[in-house]
Amino acid sequence: MFDIVEITTMAAVMINTVQHFAINADDLPRARAFYENVFGWRFEAWGPPDFFQIVSGTDDAPGIRGALQKRREIAPGKKIHGFECTVAVADIDAVIASVREAGGTILMEKSVIAGVGTLVFFADPEGNAVGAMQYDFEIE
Question: Are 52 and 65 in contact (CB under 8 A)?
């Protein structure tokens, strides 16, 4: 069930496990200060404006990858509240087909994040938003 896939020069990724989380915020400086104070997390600007990678661990125990980002709508009129989780998958197209077959809804069609992989967001039958990422650190 939990296969490990070697991803180019990066560390191996365990498939079908949560590999990333994102915190959506209206006030990024306030949210950043909160998580720095509560958990001691560090934040590094990365990628688009209003996006920070969260360093939640140490070199010896790196923890899960995270992001702090400007609150967004994943579906028209529906802003994301709460932590957003992304599961590593081996085959994004197979996951999309499985989501539809199991009664889920695609919220955001698959899109490429250069140097990271291909991402899709879907809603489960209960309306929970979930991300699925097929990691490929060489993708353009």
Answer: no
